[in-house]
Amino acid sequence: MTWSEMQPLLSQACWDTLYMVGWSTLIAIVGGLPLGVLLVLTDKGGLLQNTVLNKVIGQIVNVARSMPFIILMVALMGFTRWITGTTIGREAAIVPLAIGAIPFFARLVETAVREVDGGLVEAVQAMGGNTWTVVRKVLVPESLPSLISSATTTVVALIGYSAMAGTVGAGGLGDIAIRYGYQRFETGLMWITVAILAVVISVIQFAGDYAARGLHRRGGRSGSAPKLRFLRTETTSVGDTPAAIPAQATEADRAPAAEVTKVP
Amino acid sequence: MITTSGLTKVYRSRGREVTALDGVDLHVREGEVYGVIGQSGAGKSSLIRCVNLLERPTAGTVTVAGQDLTALAGRGPRAGKALREARSRIGMVFQHFNLLSSRTVQDNVELPLEILGVSGKERSRKALELLDLVGLSDKAKAYPAQLSGGQKQRVGIARALAGDPKVLLSDEATSALDPETTRSILQLLRDLNQQLGLTVLLITHEMDVVKSICDSAALMEKGRIIESGTVSELLATPGSELAAALFPVSGDATGDDRTVVDVTFHGESATQPVISQLSRTYNIDISILGAAMDTVAGKQVGRMRIELPGRYEDNVVPIGFLREQGLQIDVQGQEPVLLKEGAK
Q: Which of A43, A48, A115, A127 should we substitute to test contact with B (largest number of B Cβ atoms within 10 Å)?
């Protein structure tokens, strides 16, 4: 197979992957964010404490998360047909991808939101804020760096799942790798898809970490800084220096990290 | 301005009951700075959280500015509209500042105004005005992480004032600060109290806080208020634990057959040469074990621990003489039973 043959195949596959992952991420965030916040609010000692609701949501999330994606895809076929009118193609793949990702993201949101200092919630209540104000002005903005990291993790997981969705004819990079690379022994093509996936995932992870760190830098002390995956050194622990140290010193301490972030 | 009656808070967890507040009656007059002091676990935090109903009292009522908040609260655990409106008129500052790290200083101060639904332009005008009041107008665009502890607390105070409250609750506002910063924050609270006529209820475990800014104080122990009153009343109360803690004098008797007497001077009596008069009149030798002068609630107060030869029975007459001079006398080792009634 020559490059001129591979090229249109690959560009279509890339586009398909991004299309599926993009839409399912969007749906996962729209669905998972409220669900995750609700898990925190309804928990014991939460603002909307409701043990029954909390247990029910928690169980649904657990069941959905414990299901292997390939099984979920098959199990949801009826539902998918009802929504999109078909069970084949990239639109059809979005349905199980999104449904698989919602509980995944919800759990990550739950963890992130739980990290927010209860004192901030109390402060807003003391100002006369209601629960919605607390969610909007405190829980979400204060956990935003962690939420971005969570979304990044979700996107990366979805790229992995989308390769499996290739098996129902959804297209995408995973589909190319299986059908051409594996079944037709086009080893070269397979390695190219693997390389593309690796690059895409690295770029997404990097962008996510960069955004999270950027937000975190100004925030400073709430929670620990999300660590860059590429850095094995513990430079990030410097990010928690007490506020008394001037900003410049903190910047200087971070210089090694800053240099690395400029590499790409 | 703030009145609590029979305030009781019981925490239940895993079948165990912990009584944090046990029938607290508190009365804070308009325009005063009232300090509640006590050790950790005495129930101070529960008390201040019950005042704006962040904690629901198990029993009792809370009235702030003539409004019965416990009646507004309703039955459910969530704060209804009426309670939230009442809360917006009570400012609160916290030990750990509780500033939103994702917002700038100015946006933090604007937050209560956003909740009140004030328009954008008006919000930023008000926020800058308040930051100017607390001396931080140059930090409006900074993030809390870039500020020192004292500056953060100033932002906290500016934020608490955004809703034009009549009452400010201070939950250990200076406990996380160093002594120097503590003084400047207390001075700020005092200034606000005088300039804006703000009523301040503060809880603390530091006697210095009470000494430097409080008009009145209460001592809490095991969920109860043991003593309360204006600081000068407390100092004038024989046997008052709070007065002794506010103004400690030390020194032990040098022998068994001695009488140790604490003499407290304030106002007029501070200028009288009572000790030399006592010595001359009764021809006794007086040794001074310890003495201190200080300013409490803006008044000069002196305290002296003296030792008279002989047991208490032998010194009834000289002690009577001291009392006649208008001094407050506490005889160590003698229970001031009768006089303790006056503290109530």
A: A127
Q: Among B136, B185, B189, B151, which residue's Cα sits nearest to residue B167?
A: B189
Taking CA–CA distances from B164, the nearest residue in chain A reads A127
Indicate the SS3 state at residue A234. coil
Say yes or no for a CB contact (<8 Å) between B144 and A220.
yes
Smallest Cβ–Cβ distance between A247 and the set B101, B102, B146 belongs to B146
**pTM, whole model, 2 decimals?**
0.79
- Alpha carbons B149 and A42: distance in angstroms, whole number: 34
Collapsing DSSP to helix, strand or coil, B92 comes out as strand
Cβ atoms of B167 and B198 closer than 8 Å? yes
First vs last C-alpha separation in chain A = 31
Cα–Cα distance measured from residue B42 to residue B56, given in angstroms and rounded to the nearest whole number: 18
A-B contacts (CB, under 8 Å): 91
| Interval A107-155: pLDDT, tens | 999 999 999 999 999 999 999 999 999 999 999 999 999 999 999 999 9
CA distance B96 to chain A (A): 8
In this prediction the ipTM stands at 0.81
Q: For residue B88, give how far its alpha carbon lies from the nearest alpha carbon of chain A (Å).
A: 5
Any long-range contacts for B183-188 (C-beta under 8 Å, 24+ apart)?
Answer: B183/B212, B184/B150, B185/B150, B185/B153, B185/B154, B185/B157, B186/B212, B186/B213, B187/B213, B188/B134, B188/B135, B188/B154, B188/B157
Residue A122 neighbours by CB under 8 Å, 6+ apart:
B54, B94, B98
Three-state secondary structure call for residue A252: helix
Structural domains in chain A, sorted by start: 3-207 (1.10.3720.10)
Alpha-carbon A242 to chain mean position? 30
Return mean pLDDT, chain B: 86
- Give the largest Cα separation in chain B, rounded: 78
